[in-house]
Here is the input.
Amino acid sequence: MKPTLVILAAGMASRYGSMKQTQGFGPSGETIMEYSIYDAIRAGFGKVVFIIREEFADMFKENFGKKLEGKIEVDYVYQALNSFVGDRAIPAERTKPWGTAHAVLCCKGKVNEPFSVINADDFYGRDAFVKAYNFLTTASNDNTYCIIGYELKKTLSDNGHVSRGVCDVDADNNLTDINERTKIFRNDKGVITYEDESGLHEVSENSSVSMNFFGFAPNFIDRCENLFQDFLNKEINNPKGEFFIPLVVDHVVKSGSGKVKVIPTSAQWFGVTYKEDAPVVQASIDKLVADGEYPNNLWA
Here is the structure.
């Protein structure tokens, strides 16, 4: 059974200020996620599932359905505030989705095979998809998942600070801890630092970080369902509370119920966290096309 690619595309793009998931960057108007899908097809994935808000369904189907017809199976999952909430009352001030792990939970019944999860607005590079496919088809099981680990220095923005999940691993590349570091940037001396409530701290540029590229067995969705109920018990009245994939991953590791491999990739990540990142992304894709890594038209 071929693995599935699940794309997180239900976010509100608040920092970027537009629907960046459908902004064209390639020579023929390709979006960033189209390059991910193209790389996934080349690696051997058999299906792509878009997690979106239902009000964007027609737009997504118009933009991607015809392009991908005959190339890979396509399906859609809608992330809604009332999904898997049961009879709980949702506070009126809660307007944003419940987070990335809730998005994965919304795939219940639609994804029944090993799968990878990625962000819609991140460019991950071909090497990452090859390694994810190899893991999902040879090493994935109910107790073994993976994170594709990027070198921190290859994930920064020149236009502002970023947040990254910094991974600690053991001698066998098993995840032992993942720490969300906010406000990571390279200072005037070229040193990468992050800021928290106690001040500034240096972090190695070679640190392995998670860019929300995961590989899971289908039972991970059940883990999300179980933990989401605990999350709601504690956070349902917190309008900013979010149920993130790393929370579930951390529970798997800390509870001893499974292990998570951190698989290093040499790929250069880039994305559009800020509007000022867009020209850099455009230039990066132009260079990859000029170097022959991708055709001028992905779907011609």
Remarks:
- The helical segments are 32-43, 57-68, 100-105, 126-138, 219-235, 245-255, 278-290.
- Residues 12-18 have pLDDT under 50 and may be disordered.
